[in-house]
Amino acid sequence: MARKAHWQFLGLVLAVLGFILTAGTSGVNDWRLWYVDDTSVINSGVAWVGIWRACFLSHVFDTYEFCRSIRISDSFIPPEIAAGQVLCMTAIPIGIAGNLIAGYAVKDVYFNVNRRHIRWAFLLAGALYLLTAACTLIPVFWNVNSVLSNRTIDFPPEFHLPPAPNRQELGTGIIIGFGSSFLLIVSGLLFLSYRQPDRLQISDPEACSTEEEARGIPNLSTVTETVLEGIDNPMFMNGEKP
Fold it and tell me: b vs e for 79-97, b when ≥16 Cβ sit within 10 Å of the residue's Cβ?
């Protein structure tokens, strides 16, 4: 049975790595790179816009890296940023549940625990991994579309960002999001492709007997009945010879 789950073990490794990258996707600040012409405040000429914060480097303020938090309750927040906050936070508990179920199923396979629910555990883990990837891909693709369309965000004055950037580029957060989703999709498909060995799916004693007879293996119950009939024979009990 363990030989049947090597691909699922690989899928678990890929899923754990993909989950770590998924959590990292939510945390990085540079989903979108804003390039500006005025470098009087934004000295580097580029600002980083993530789903939780907007940052840039400046010598004007007390801190060299100036950042402002973006909250879902802010009136200026665009829908792709709000979706990123909600879906990325949703992906984390789903990914944790997928890893726990997948680890439990792989453990049962390698320790030869013949339980009927192993197949269902693999299916559930695969579905959770695909759902985690979807929660990451939706805001990633949405922000990619905003970057390619050079859509602006009406930041309030305290962010010290211009009304519109000169141009935009894809940031590290989007690239990591694509990578984590790819790993989770591959892992999910590996878990969904698991097939339980045929010998573990036979639960009917009559089916087992039929299969044994087809293979030329004596049925244990038949042998037992024959022995008992011999013991119950009166001639055998009296010790008489025929």
Answer: ebbbbbbebbeebeebbeb
